[in-house]
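[scheduler] slot 2 assigned
[scheduler] job type: sequence-to-structure, two independent chains
[scheduler] chain ordering preserved from manifest
[runner] begin chain α
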Amino acid sequence: MHPMLNIAIKAARRAGTIINRASLDLERLNVARKGPRDYVTEVDRASEESIVETLRAAYPDHAVLGEEYGLQGPEQAEFQWIIDPLDGTTNFIHGLPNYAVSIALTQRGQVTQAVVYDPSRNELFTASRGSGTFLNDRRVRVSGRSRYSEALLGAHWPKSGDIDAGGGRFRQLTEGCTGVRRLGSTVLDLAYVAAGRLDGFCGMRLKPWDLAAGSLLVQEAGGLVGDFDGEQGWLDSGNVLAASPKIFTQMLVALQPKQD
């Protein structure tokens, strides 16, 4: 295993311990609002602080971009860690055990290492570029399902159930598949695509810390990641599709505006 991946796993597990301990007494949580339907707790901050401490102790010259504290370290650093200390905060504060820690390492802008850790289930998803994707040391692959009518998708859209956003494109996407699940944690959605639990994922207006680690998990598991036009601008736009190759192509077709 790559030594930098080992450090990321150590950081993710330390953060998971913080999250699990806090989950035992949710009534004592201090919850703040960053925006509409956007919450942050002291657990998010403590988790990020723990991750940054672990990463910077091992690699003091690396930069770290986190959801809660922004960029720490040199802006033009060759290596940059991108972290989400608790993706699925709304689930967490409601006691719904569907949230995760996400840590990715980029080298010159390319994601090379990825960890997504689900502390409530003790599931660890990892990937190193060129070495495949693993769930708790077992190699995983994207789904082999080829019929879009049988595909189960994950989704992150601006509003719950707003399938008419984007000129009705999402309605076209949902009508052809077997079902769509909004699980409330993008990083887990992407990990589940990589493990074949979901056949595809569609997300809109996402941030780099939502996508960096999960994108490598999907790619190393044999899947495709692209924006709504099938191009590679998804990290900048925040609009992303991720799926097995056959389902990806059909999702892309379903998203295209209908011709009059």
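[runner] end chain α
[runner] begin chain β
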Amino acid sequence: MTRLPDFRLETYFSRWEFTARHHLTASDARTMTLGALLELADDTDRDAFEHLSLGYTETFGDPGLRAAIADTYEHIEPDDVICFAGAEEALYVAMNVLLDAGDHAVVTTPNYQSAETVPLALCEVTGVALDPARDWALDLDAVLAAIRPNTRVVSVNFPHNPTGKVVDRAEFAALVRLCDERGIHLFSDEVYRGLERDPARTLPQAADLSPHALSLNVTSKSLGLPGLRIGWIACRDRALRSRLERAKHYTTICNSAPSEVLARIALKARETILARNRALITANLTVFDAFFAEYPDDFEWRAPDGGCVAYPRYLGAEGVEAFCTRLVEEAGVLLLPASIYRSDLTPTPTDRFRVGVGRDHAEAALSALSTWLRTGR
């Protein structure tokens, strides 16, 4: 395994995720029970789950699951899909296939840590920072300036974690063209797609726009089913897809058979699940808007364009790191401070924290936070 630094987010979560009373920084939408998911299944898939043989599965993924995934794209066939154990394995395998010593990659910052550290363990990497002063805008000129003759990958994530930013469709299409014209693979993390506040702002998927781009997705985030541990990459480059499969032989080999059938059910019921999760986020954002309006001297708040995380600014004198530490220790409210999202490639804000807006019980968590702000500080 490539030598990698500690994963700051997971290390932080290992301490607090299941002990804090209020998980106010969750990155996934509300989940459901196994029974509730099976209620969404058709007779064929329910029978397949109940009579499932618990043997090995195909390395590429269950054919029925890949067909269900392909149905969510415009120009992707089932054979253009390879499944993984969540998005993390997919990212790790893809970067190890696409990059080698002597290559170069470009990644946007701030980011989910492995989007930066996995490429950095393999080759030189240049960061391009989203600009908080311009509503987390992506500077395409900066991307172009960062590209070198040996650039093999440009990695982006929209809707963005942790800011919730969604770029304009024309801007995203221009990014795809920029990469295609230079023979660069665009690696597009699309795990929050489907949770845009304005459906008209939903971006096309990169693999639909380019035969060389890779679209990453997973059942964990928008569908709220992280326990299934099913992710995938869609890419029309069959030779590249074959290389991804051979690399997977050294990681998980194949996915969990029950999870693949359950993921197939979820993908077929995708519109029902997404509509439910969008409704919850809309309701939660009203609550978050009201909360932050009460504390204009403490916070600077902007609702996300999409996804179920946001990245408010903390204005208190003690700083966001001390704020988040005291809050979870004294009030049991878990937030992710800016240090989790620091980058070794570019300066990143040091006064932000991540909140999750996609789960139930936001009112109880914000009430605990409000009580602590009034009485505990």
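[runner] end chain β
[qc] chain β: The first strand starts at residue 22 and ends at 23.
[scheduler] slot 2 released
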